[in-house]
Task: inverse folding
């Protein structure tokens, strides 16, 4: 196991390098190498960062071939099947976008390839962290501009990611099943969509049919910034609290995009160029149990479990 020291604003911390052979077992068993909470799966900021990273290389490019390299690991789910997707060669990627926590590759036939990174999936336009976990390669017709990549890759260590080819109707159906994008929600949207659920607000924020894109990490950060208790029933939020929630959603997600997402101690998430994000240096509560709250400077951050997931919060600042 390799260990390196990482300088963070809050002091020096260990980081275990999980890409070494020795730690392979940790990945496959689903156990993070060193973390007090579950592995962080890509949420809106991480997927948005991936999409912004690959878009200049992929949008408008003609696909020469789609390859599924041999992989001895747990295979990713491919819908309807690999053969159907391979027949997309010859088409052009007309749009690269994000839908909640999914990346969208639209083709000139208006069919859509939906890539869901789930736990450890990455979209890359540079050499991946390992070759044995490479799942899909889109080979493009070589570009005249030398700085553009000629391949897009989907890499997934644990193999929980999915690739789906959807018809325009199927894609419209998926859009309808999801709530509006979290960054496009308004205070009125939050009020309306939370009104019918008595679940705790933290749990409701994870429900992709209410708003799309928020996951476990950013839900804790958002509620801390909004000063809202994660236990508060969602339907009890009104007026100023709804306003604060909406502002906190925008602030936290926008800042996280600016810092290219969060790469935690498990080292899983990387941007399209196989580099760490840096928003983990700006987390105020996530995975900070026992630390002093950076807002009030007095109370220690607590961890509770809600719907089988860890929630981190400050009992003084969040009511
Ligand atoms: Zn506090």
Result:
């Amino acid at each position: 196991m390799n260990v390196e020291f990482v300088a963070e604003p809050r002091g020096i911390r260990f980081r275990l390098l999980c890409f070494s052979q020795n730690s392979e077992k940790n990945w496959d068993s689903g156990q993070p190498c060193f973390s007090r909470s579950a592995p962080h799966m890509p949420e809106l900021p991480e997927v948005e960062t991936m999409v912004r990273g690959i878009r200049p290389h992929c949008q408008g490019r003609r696909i020469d071939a789609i390859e599924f390299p041999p992989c001895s690991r747990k295979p990713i789910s491919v819908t309807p099947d690999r053969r159907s997707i391979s027949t997309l060669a010859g088409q052009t990627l007309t749009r690269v976008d994000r839908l909640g926590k999914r990346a969208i590759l639209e083709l000139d036939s208006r069919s859509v390839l939906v890539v869901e990174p789930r736990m450890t999936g990455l979209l890359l336009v540079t050499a991946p962290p390992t070759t044995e976990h490479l799942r899909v390669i889109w080979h493009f017709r070589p570009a005249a501009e030398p700085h553009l990549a000629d391949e897009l890759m989907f890499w997934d260590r644990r193999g929980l990611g999915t690739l789906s080819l959807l018809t325009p109707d199927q894609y419209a159906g998926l859009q309808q099943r999801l709530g509006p994008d979290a960054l496009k929600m308004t205070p009125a949207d939050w009020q309306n969509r939370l009104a019918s659920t008595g679940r705790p607000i933290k749990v409701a924020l994870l429900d992709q049919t209410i708003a799309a894109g928020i996951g476990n990490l950013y839900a804790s950060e958002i509620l801390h910034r909004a000063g809202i208790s994660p236990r508060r029933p969602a339907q009890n939020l009104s007026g100023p609290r709804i306003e604060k929630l909406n502002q906190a959603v925008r602030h936290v997600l926008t800042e996280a995009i600016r810092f290219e997402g969060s790469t935690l101690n498990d080292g899983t998430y990387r941007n399209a160029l196989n580099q760490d994000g840096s928003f983990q240096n700006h987390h105020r509560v996530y995975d900070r149990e026992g630390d002093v709250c950076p807002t009030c400077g007095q109370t220690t951050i607590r961890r509770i479990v809600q719907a089988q997931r860890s929630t981190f919060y400050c009992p003084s600042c969040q009511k």
